[in-house]
Amino acid sequence: MAKKKIMNKKSMTFLEKYLNNAAPTGYEWDGQKIWMDYLKPYVDEFITDSYGTAVGVINPKAKYKVVIEGHADEISWYVNYITDNGLLYVIRNGGSDHQIAPSKWVNIHTKKGIVKGVFGWPAIHTRNKGKEEPPKLDNIFIDVGCTTKKEVEALGVHVGCVITYPDEFHVLNKDKFVCRAIDNRAGGFMIAEVARLLHENKVKLPFGLYITNSVQEEIGLRGAQMITETIKPNLAIVTDVCHDTTTPMINMKTQGETKMGDGPVISYAPAVQNNLRERIIETAEAKKIPFQRMASSRSTGTDTDAFAYSNGGVPSALISLPLRYMHTTVETVHKNDVENVIRLIYETLLTIKDGETFSYFD
């Protein structure tokens, strides 16, 4: 594929709609419907499971199965306790950052619809200046404008209601995408774009391609663990986000150096099959796609681990999108990196032969 603009107007409309939609862990189905509707013209059929993972399949009758995968869920909160005077205390659903919560608007999802609320915080004038109390899980709270527990319950709010941030998609300085939930609906977007390009370029793959948008990654890779047992793939290429470590207060000696705008990040880790990783690197070099390297220790912390250690071992690799301000409402990525992840997955697929094992012993 020639080095040219990847995303078009339709792509951008889809990306914005998909990111703006709330799809918290355990409640991903509305986002999955948006994703499947976009993907439908480019695949032969869909597979879904009882927890909401969605898979678009090209060449479903092929015996050799290749997965490209992202995850669909976003971090959120649960209502955990309602006080007698109508305030809500919360627990995490995924890795929600308590330190960014104060003064944020929230959407509380109820059977009656969205209930608006705010994370309250004591005014600076009233706090002990000699001993500032930082935001913690046991002191952040949500105010929905009620004065009693009964009023709160009348709105449809109860313990167990899921809570998301309403922050929506923006473009910063022409080529930076900013939104909550880029981790990792950007992944779902990028694999969908790969499917679109394959279709538009009339590529005939010699294997079955399973474009997989997994649920529940944020609480332990659960959706990937389930769907890999259903698909039983021969190969998996996973895409997720990683940290741009060049911003303040990050120690590159411990976190490594990866930078937004410098290209996709290719991981080294026990779960990453070395020969598959080298194929991806060779593809990047041959097609002049910029890339970076990242080393993980025991695990990647992504769905790569779930695929790699399933079904007796599945050769798996991880291509990451460098992102600033992970698990905040202003997650930020570079447009060029998004396009280059898409390009790298696409070009790598074109090198894979039917039945290839990537074995060390061939």
Automatic annotation (TrEMBL):
InterPro entries: Peptidase_M42 (IPR008007), Peptidase_M42_aminopept (IPR051464), Peptidase_M42_dom2 (IPR023367)
PANTHER family: AMINOPEPTIDASE (PTHR32481), AMINOPEPTIDASE YSDC (PTHR32481:SF20)
Keywords: Aminopeptidase, Hydrolase, Metal-binding, Protease
Protein name: M42 family metallopeptidase
Keyword Transport appears in the UniProt entry: no
Source taxon at top rank: Bacteria
UniProt record similarity statement: Belongs to the peptidase M42 family.
